[in-house]
Amino acid sequence: MANGTGIRLGARVSELSVFAIERSIVRRGFVLLALVLPGHVLNYALLVGATHLLVSDAFGIFYAAIAIINVLFAPSLVLSLFLARHFARLKAQAGPGAAVEAFRQAFRLIARWGLLALFLGLAALGVIGSLVGVESFVLIALIVLTAYMAYVTDVVRAAFQGLQLFVLLGLMGLAWMALRFGLGMAGLGIVGTPWAGLVGILASGLIVCAIFYHVVLRRRDAKPIAEAAFPIEVRKLVQFTMGFSLFSVITYLDVLVGYLVMERASFGVYAASSVLPKAIILLSLPVGQVLFPVLTDEESVGRVRSTSVAKGLGLTFFVSAVGSVIVLAFADFFCGEGFGITLADPELVRLLTLSAIPICLLRVVVMRELARGRDWHPLYLMIPLLPFTSYLLGADTLDAFAYAQSYVIFALVVFAFYAIASLATFDRAKADRAKALAR
Known about the structure:
It is a single chain. This protein is mostly helical. It contains 19 helices and no strands. α4 packs antiparallel against α5, α4 runs parallel beside α13 and α14 packs antiparallel against α17. The chain is globular. The two termini are 26 Å apart.
């Protein structure tokens, strides 16, 4: 009798814990956003400052290096979300100690195999460096090293996300961007070369990773255990990566296909005009970083609440709508001289901004399915993605505005389609679960 009472009491405590977490989604989302937003400003300020410290050719090299790093770093978000889900499940099922030990194992594994890939890549690039010059090889090496450091550092951020330490997650991101700006500007200002700025960026990741790695391990409420249960399966990681990668493809589909079908001059204007709309999508990411481990927590204790998803959708809509209104109202200023994006067309910026809100909301629905462990579900996105991609590839006569209109319509359609698909399959999953319990 006492044992049964204890089990019921433990279950009740778990439900109350989840309820408390769910109620704090909005508050934590705003706190994390408040910490992340200055980081985005500093990231933009680094590029603006570089235009004043470097001559035109040197800035082109520096900006190209940053772009390559961003491309190499893009899959890290998928890995970070997957690890965050793993850590959140361990925390819910076996306590924070298991999650900390799993973090320690994952960090060492990724750092070790990443180093192997790094040395192999540098060896291959050494041949290229001997052909294009020593300075080019130095830049390539710095690009690869910076990307590697970013992947390792993102494992630490995944730990904070999975453990639901959102203030520390925000502080880590802010510290990273602040050091990135300070050390990057110092390198550019003192030495005046692109490689010096990249050295500063690389050093910022190394410092932040070293500090916050020990912050995770020294959590007072999370004494590491000898061995973490529920090891990561490569098969699940591949499924997860495929699912979320489709969302990333949809986010940048217009730019990726535009490079193939548009004239170079028109594409330059289009790409520059898409910077701010894509920034709105990035701005709403902290909401997903808060919501994802909460949904994983609820799934782990068997108490999935629709209100958590509703709050996530509402907060995402609010953040993306505010960002969209600001861009729509001040597009002329953002595309002007000085601190603006001079290649961008204000009217094209306004048109592309209309795609930001549905894409942001789509990410919430995709994260909902991934948090529930249905890693295959985002593959439904292939249904609207394939025919629209075929349409764009065959529409080489479209001008930039007609092309942008097509993408805005696609963004609205793909969100509506996937939201319906998610609701339909969710009801089916509930029915299947009810039948299983009835047996």
